Amino acid sequence: MTQGDATGGAAHSRAVVILAAGQGKRMHSARPKVLHPVLGEAMLSHVLRTAHTLKPDRIVVVTGVGRAEVEAFVAAQPVPAGSVVPVCAVQPEQRGTGHAVLCAQVAWQGTTEVIVLCGDVPLLRPETLLAVSAARGDAACALVAVDLADPTGYGRLVVGPDGRVERIVEQKDATAAERAIRATNAGLYAFDAAFLAGALPQLRADNAQGELYLTDVAALAAAAGRAPVPVWASEAAEVQGVNNRLDLAECSDHLRRRIVRQWLRAGVSFDAPDSAWVETTVVLEPDASIGADVELRGRTAIAAGARIGRGCVLTDTTVAAGAELLPYSVATGARIGPGAHVGPFAHLRPGTDLGADVKVGNFVETKKARFGPGAKAGHLSYLGDCDIGARSNIGAGTITCNYDGVNKFRTVLGEGVFIGSDTQLVAPVTLGDGAYVGAGTTVTQDVPPGALAVSRTGQLNVEGWVARQQAKRARSAATK
Ligand code: UD1
Ligand code: CA
Description:
480 residues
């Protein structure tokens, strides 16, 4: 957002700096901390999304530990239309949060406001950041403050009689009296960029951790008569920093509840709101209904009147109006048409496309399978790399043999085809409209429209065989 200043002064421009160079020792993980997921999505992805909503002129991610992995992650994230492409700045050694901002200086220099976010504070809302930016006025800085019953581990805010922050003291440097302070630094700031540029070179590592603390900019601002303005967060969870797996789990659960509540208010019903997992990227329409223990992940979308039964797990799947998924069905990268019925216990894999009113029943696995309207596969089948025409009926135990060990081949069924139970369709193979396949057939050749295909060895009945066997066994037992 670049605005001309009405008074004719310097244009306002904003940089967002995301600190993500730290190791995260307490995670006990080989993975960089900011790439650990909260509600199925890396913390850094949540923070980048928040940064983009501010439409800043620049976004800088400071990387260090796990740098290659973090930079690759940043490069792979989608950039919303009209947003700036984030850049990365390297902090070669982790010498503290102040040092991290210093390492990114070339990337934020020239802007008028620098917003600093932590890659390990994933639940911060854009509204709160805008409030911080707006509250700064002519202070050198505004920051998010929170009143915590147990502020252990966080920096404490020493607040003066005018309500401004005089200085910030880290847990490890605090006296017993300072540790009793509940006013906590959330680690999120809006700085006057020029003041920040002047203050960073003055930071000293003469503290318990031997680091350059960004938090020491507060005392420098106060000394300059421009003490930081605290903006009090209404909800502690929003500014919770993640330092270990317990924090991570708590953040996930908090976000999960926040999202489920949003959808409940928007007219979606949940049988058991406490057990539903709905990621931030999911879209639900009013009057959709979600059962207990359901997981909706990634770019899943559920239309009005659709019903998702207990225990279903849907990833990147769209469910059209009035479709019903019976319990414990799993779908990934699938499209489920209006009025379709799926499950229980169906497995729809990527590229599954079910037309209107299709039925896919229990223990059916599909992959790259297009079903025309009204087609049915009721039970126990594997249907991969296939087109199944409208109103075709697939019997129990049907298998598309789509793979010869090297290549995959398609099976194409016309409309109204009937496949008897226990059929193998050896691809590539095409069955014309209205073709009929007898139970137990191995189809290896194309079947013309309206033809019957059947491949069976003839049946032999041996009269009296069972009685003769029993008699034989009785004789051999008697001679032992
Ligand atoms: C920091 C604040 C503390 C605040 C808390 C809120 C400082 C000195 N302290 O403490 O007042 O209450 O956040 O969560 O700022 N990082 C780097 N490079 C470094 C060090 C850290 O990029 O050299 C990054 C980390 O990856 C992390 C963020 O900065 O994303 C915060 O660092 P962390 O070590 O977690 O700081 P805290 O001890 O939590
Ligand atoms: Ca932290």
